[in-house]
Automatic annotation (TrEMBL):
This is Uroporphyrinogen-III synthase. GO terms for biological process: protoporphyrinogen IX biosynthetic process; uroporphyrinogen III biosynthetic process. Residues 20-238 form the Tetrapyrrole biosynthesis uroporphyrinogen III synthase domain. Catalyzes cyclization of the linear tetrapyrrole, hydroxymethylbilane, to the macrocyclic uroporphyrinogen III. It comes from Eiseniibacteriota bacterium.
């Protein structure tokens, strides 16, 4: 009997063999790319470049994505992060990216996500007069910056990258080529782009639709599509949810050990 590999569309802007695709493959599924968004440099790179040059002036660097870390590293010309800089990341994968650029023991929350990170940050320092750099997506959330500013921190938010929707006809063509049986929707912007290109019916026919994070699930619900949400906002949890709830794990596929978010 031949092994059946279920086709799962991924909407992330990642190359073949990216971290989500790798997680799905480990659980015996076949990831098929259907990127709905693209990440591009900021319209004005000046603030990021200045912050990168003057990073030694900051007490904290707080990041919500590995992409923001990468953009900052490019702006620094590959120079490592200052040795005395304290760092914090939204999850373990982003923290690992910080460590590759010289960060030592970044602060991470017990569970991945901005709300949990804010809880951890509140207990990590006094914050008054602390200089904080937060490179982020142009459309990224500002809750942490506002909360720390309310505690007396001097927070500089700089745009590290922008998220733009791919053209609808390009998304629709990729979807037809992917011919998926399930889909992982990675962000609210990906949800909006996917529904704009396809409508809701192709998504409603799938079982299941998985959203990374509650905000993405709420965006899908507002568009008329129900979605499942993994218990943790990481790729291993996404793949495990697909395998556990559908029974689609391929025969002989190894069950990876649970990883911290």
């Amino acid at each position: 009997m031949s092994e059946r590999r279920v086709r799962v569309a991924t909407t992330r802007d990642e190359a073949a063999g990216g971290p989500l695709a790798e997680a799905l493959a480990r659980w015996g599924m076949e990831p098929v790319r259907c990127a709905t968004i693209a990440h591009v440099p900021p319209l004005d790179p000046g603030p990021l470049e200045r912050a990168a040059r003057e990073l030694e002036r900051y007490d904290w660097l707080i990041v919500a994505s590995a992409r923001a870390v990468a953009a900052l590293a490019v702006a620094r010309g590959g120079r490592p992060l200052p040795s005395g800089l304290r760092t914090a990341a939204v999850g373990a994968k982003t923290a690992a990216r910080l460590e590759t650029h010289g960060a030592v023991s970044p602060l991470i929350p017990r569970t991945a996500g901005a709300a949990a990170l804010l809880v951890a940050l509140r207990a990590a320092d006094e914050w008054r007069d602390r200089r904080v750099l937060m490179p982020r997506a142009a459309e990224g959330g500002r809750e942490i910056a506002r909360a720390l500013g309310g505690r007396g921190a001097v927070v500089d938010e700089v745009v590290a990258y922008r998220t733009i929707e791919r053209p609808p006809d390009e998304i629709a063509s990729a979807w037809r080529a992917a011919a998926p049986e399930a889909v992982v929707v990675a962000s609210p912007s990906a949800a909006r782009a996917l529904v704009r290109a396809l409508g809701t019916e192709p998504l409603r026919r799938l079982e299941p639709v998985v959203a990374i994070g509650s905000k993405t699930a709420m965006a899908l619900m507002a568009l008329g599509v129900r979605a499942m949400v993994p218990p943790r906002a990481d790729f291993e949890a996404v793949a495990a949810l697909l395998a556990r709830t559908t029974g689609w794990q391929a025969p002989g596929a190894a069950v990876p050990e649970r990883r911290r978010s």
